[in-house]
Amino acid sequence: MTRTRCRPERAARACDADAPSLRRRAQVRLASIAENSFNAVERIDEFCSLPQEAPAKLPGAKPDGWPPAGKVAPTPAAPSSTFLDQQSKWHPGRS
User: 27: domain range?
Assistant: First the structure.
């Protein structure tokens, strides 16, 4: 978009004509900033009223039969505690 140059007296009248439009845009912008600020305050208030979550690690929360020291314990059905040819996929189609 190209702008044409005007004589100063015409430019002053054009600025006066654009003033209400600029004021409206500024009012809309300030109103949206105020609304976002109120939303943030409401969100903080809502989160402050939520009950406290449990800690990430609960002491003694391991179920019975949990492997000690991160190792798989042998069972009568599987006396060997080693894995052979173990594969895992996190994303379908990728190895």
Answer: 7-51
Residue 87 domain flag = no
**At 88, which helix (H) or strand (E)?**
none
DSSP 35-57: HHHHHHHHHHHHHHTSPPPPPSS
Per-residue DSSP letter, 91 = S
Q: Answer yes or no: is 11 within a domain.
A: yes
In a domain, 80, yes or no: no
The long-range contacts involving 37-46, CB below 8 angstroms and separated by at least 24 positions, are none
- Residue 69 inside a domain? The answer is no
- The sign of the CA dihedral 59, 61, 64, 67 is negative
pLDDT at 95 over 60: no
Radius of gyration of the chain (CA): 34
- State the residue for tokens 């609304």: 35
Please indicate, yes or no, whether the overall pTM of this predicted structure exceeds 0.90.
no
